[in-house]
Amino acid sequence: MSAQRERFVLRERQRVAQLQRENMQQQLKRWVADNEAHAYMLASQKHSKYRWILRWRQEQEENQRREDALNRRKEERRCMKQQREQEERIAHEMEQMKIEELRDKKIRQRIRESSLELRELEVKLKEADTAWERAAQIAEKKASLLEHVVREQAEQHAIEQEEEACQALIREEREKLLHEHGQSLCGFLPKGVFKDCDLKLYEDFQKMYQKKEDVLLHKH
């Protein structure tokens, strides 16, 4: 009887222990499931929050772009208006200047017409201007004539220099010919071959020729 009770107690203990293990496993599974659900919920919340932040940033950027575009259009309109006002102001000022200039011109014209002194001065100035133009024309003609004379003188001087150079070459060649043939042909040269400027050369040739004649006579 005692042995059966002990086995019963042992089985009960084993069953209780099994139930406790199963209970612990169930609790562990629920805990894991709860943790996974919590983690998923956190991840989902984080993802939703990230998407919300991203969408918020995109909306902010879009709003900023629209605001910048609006500000640029406002600035462009302001600049165009300012430029238009400036152009209108300049045009008005120029028109006023033209009016003032025309008024001043008319006043001066009336003063000139009504003032004998100014009319006489204007006549004298016109006469002086005419005289100056006439003097300028005369000076221009004189300068042209002087230039022509200078050019002719330069051309004549060039011709004279060329003629002198040519005569110098002729004299040089003549002296060379006389030196080459004058000594041997001195006694046979016709009159007019030697000129007055060749007198010394002629005398030298005569002396040489006479020496040659004397030598030939002594040999015979």
Record keyword descriptors for this entry.
single chain; 220 residues; mainly alpha; 2 domains; 93% helix; elongated; coiled coil; Meiosis-specific nuclear structural protein 1; MNS1
Structural features, described:
The protein is an all-alpha fold and 220 residues long. It folds into two domains: 2-114; 151-219, no CATH class. The chain is built from three helices and no strands. Helix 1 packs across helix 2. The chain is elongated. The termini are far apart.
Number of strands: 0
Task: Show unreliable segments.
Answer: none
What is the gyration radius calculated from CA atoms?
A: 68 Å
β-sheet strand percentage: under 5%
The tally of structural domains comes to 2
Find the structural class using helix and strand composition. mainly alpha
Reported for the largest beta sheet, the result is: none
Order of helices and strands: HHH
Secondary-structure topology with pairs:
Elements: H1 2-114, H2 116-185, H3 199-219
Helix pairs in contact: 1-2
Task: Offer a concise description of the structure.
The protein is an all-alpha fold and 220 residues long.
